[in-house]
């Protein structure tokens, strides 16, 4: 709750709206005890008194009634009716929406078609019809306004409920013996309440306006009772001669609705978890770079096409600093496949995304190190430079091809776009090239498949399109981030062999990110193992898999069940990886390591080794002669 | 050993393109008639790729989906969800995604209490005792009880999910990909925990996974599902050592194994058949190197070879 208030108040407009609204509400609540004239006492001798006249601070109306008093009493009434209508509409609308969304099928169909019919009437016509049927009066206007707004709530809440009703926790509740009523009340409703609050906060203003509208037409509050709408209606005849009587209630409506809307937007933003985490702040086109230390000098690593040295990427979320990547040095040569392996949260994906400045900023910041493509440092490079290289020289393949392909464009058009972004070729030429690419990734009937939409293809086919897109401009480096994790094993085997052929045929350098030792073992020449944002071991695949030097690597390999070993107890690593915002000095793996000693918990442990192999451990499983530090 | 779970010609089809009135436009057979028997105390592994119907099958077993045809018997009695409390005490389900199977707005205590309250009608003192007991058995600390699901890692959340299933005291657990959302180091923790619980509490598991190595490591018997049908079933050690269905062999060869050279195990059309327009005969024939005319004409039944435990639905088994 305090967090919610803090978020709400950080939004200055919302805070201002809230304060204005608070003042209005306090005034409205205090109206009966304020020393005000009787709002209904007529005094035709003193009609149309100007503002600031004696005894009438805001002047009088056409019957000589005190405008200030009428304004406050009217505001009180309008607010009360608006809130009551909103609560009424929200309760009924939410109930209808939840029932339709939860039961689905025919119930849903019938209820929602009814709601659709209600929505098909112009709202003012519907409200007029309801009031005409029930007769004028504020109570009936309230019913009309609430009824007109029920469909809005019903549709909103139904949409949310449909999503929730198929969640696994609802199934789990069912299996725990809960009936429909209890599931709706204890499982669905608590998850829907924020949406109801958001919908209410954005519609109360609208309902106050609608009530005022009905009163303005003479269908709401009846004379002499004042509400803002009827005050406006009565002032209409003197609009030109005595505009004050119209301006006063008009300005109050403006202030209230404006205040509610600003506050409502703020409430929505503060309640929405996506917006709370900063999704509303527009991400920058490239990751923010803030390197207090100059980038490390270029090391002569025999012809590496892409070399990272001591790359550090952090996430700054409020006061916390998550060291997602705490100094990664890697190099990949043409035709080589480098595997980066680690568990979730180890920083492997962030390392890869940092290269081209693709880590979302905020909250991501690259704080140190360099990423050199052909000797040119990409960290801190101008956006134009990065944009030219992205997808042209260095391309990415992502995990979920359904999320990376645009659902509304044909895959061929998306390939054409990727090509024409970097080359000036005619559309026809690009289309031909797109078909060639699809053939290269072994998509059958490439000509007709180019005209398919992503949803018409299977997961394996979509990932082939993803690879084709990465290959579109003949890049030098492909960074593949778990490209086969979402795929079935039979399809995975095909994608892996395709990538393998491509790099052999074209001398492509591949950085392959995965959590699967079986996959790296088959595809990669070298491996870097990451743990808690740092590389803990690297070297040739064969050597690491047969004689792992870091205890983490050894035990992680032991955890992987391999086919053909029969029924058995599996190795496990007790404990959990550390949170990267509270890293203790020393080895991050020490708390889970059975070989850890006191020395492991102090100071910086260097990645040490010779030649290709290096390990960040004081007591490695196999000794690596440490003549040079990597 | 007695049969605790028995499926007879169980199938599920979903209408596609529903209309308000009248017949739907098409029908997808997610599960074709399946016969299976699970015996007391065993772990039956079910493997298959996405879309093979393994989750649909599992959801029918716990009454979350009504079957289209066939029958399910639990402990010799037909499946009956009329009394949710009685049913929940017989069979429980552990979900694939540990986080989304917990209501984000309930504390773990509320989650744990639901089955105790609804299925066993325990009073609050008895509930507290029982929760402490269960949490000890799945290695969770009791101070987790007053936290919300988002505060847990995947492995912890999955142990909470298992704890909830245990709270029902059902003897049969359906485990639907219980470790596929977890990292390998944590995956092993959960699998070992499941193994311990099974022997300690005398449970029966139906273990569904797409990961052959995991299934092999935990199962007594394995059933391989393809396009809604069981194509092969037999003892775990035989199935992968000496697969008899060409699809099982393809699966086994596709699993990445360290040190085995990389090659695509099939070059031909690799798509699953279109479920709206299923092929005649054997569903695997388009991908099968041994397919003949006979395979196109008739769908093969599960038949036993020399060894009655190991059955395969193929005219030309390996």
Please supply descriptive tags for the structure shown above.
heterodimer, A: 630 residues, alpha/beta, MetI-like fold, nine-stranded mixed β-sheet, five-stranded mixed β-sheet, 14 strands, 13% strand, elongated, B: 318 residues, eight-stranded mixed β-sheet, 10 helices, 12 strands
Strand proportion of chain B: 15-25%
Instruction: Give the strand order of the largest sheet of chain A, numbering strands 1, 2, ... along the chain.
Output: 7-8-9-4-10-11-13-12-14
| Estimated share of beta-strand residues of chain A | 5-15%
Helical coverage of chain B, percent range: 25-40%
Instruction: Write the H/E string of chain B, N to C.
Output: EEEHEEHEHHHEHEHEEHHHEE
Domain ABC transmembrane type-1 (chain A): 75-264
Region (Disordered) (chain A): 278-301
Domain ABC transporter (chain A): 306-557
Subcellular location (chain A): Cell inner membrane; Cell membrane
